[in-house]
Amino acid sequence: MTGLGLTLVALIVLVVLRPSIAVTVGIIVGLVLTIMLHEWGHYIAAKKSGMKVTEFFLGFGPRLWSVRKGETEYGIKAIPFGGYVKIIGMSNLERDIDPADEPRTYRQGSYPKRMLVALAGVATHFLMAFTLLVILLSAVGVRMAVVSAIVAALIDAERRTPPGMPACNTALQRSAVQPLLLRTTSAGIDWHRAIM
Fold first, then answer.
1. pLDDT, tens digit, for every residue of 2-34?
2. Quick one: which of 53, 38, 122, 42 has its CA closest to 89?
3. Annotated catalytic residue: which of 39, 55, 94, 158?
């Protein structure tokens, strides 16, 4: 359902905003990458857990293109509303599993391995968000006024905290922040006006 939800949001954005062709292509490429990285998380976790993965596809419906490498078939299907990784034994209704492959089925995996496979797709979203945040902050940065406002708010909260309370015992003590205050005050930043 993640792929369907993302696709619907992307389509609504494209219809409402009517962006340029470059932005439209960027949204579509970003959507496809997000779906495939999600599925890649399930795929890697299943492979590392010793499970047999037979299919790794973008989309649903009839096959448009596919290639088999080893025991896994990779490809694209006609309806691009998501993707999937097929691991044998995901359903107890599967009857056509080779008895030699039974130890490599999802259902025969230990509980921690099954949870790892199930949560790996979601974990890739957190990894993508963290990576994009690091890239954004490294390339663009944060305005000094925002940083100074945050630090000023923390200092103010620390001043208002009664002695002996946890905030006074943290690493954010006046002695640790004082050099930063002196450096930015001498640079002409009025802390109280920055946060007001």
1. 566 767 777 787 778 777 888 888 888 888 899
2. 53
3. 39
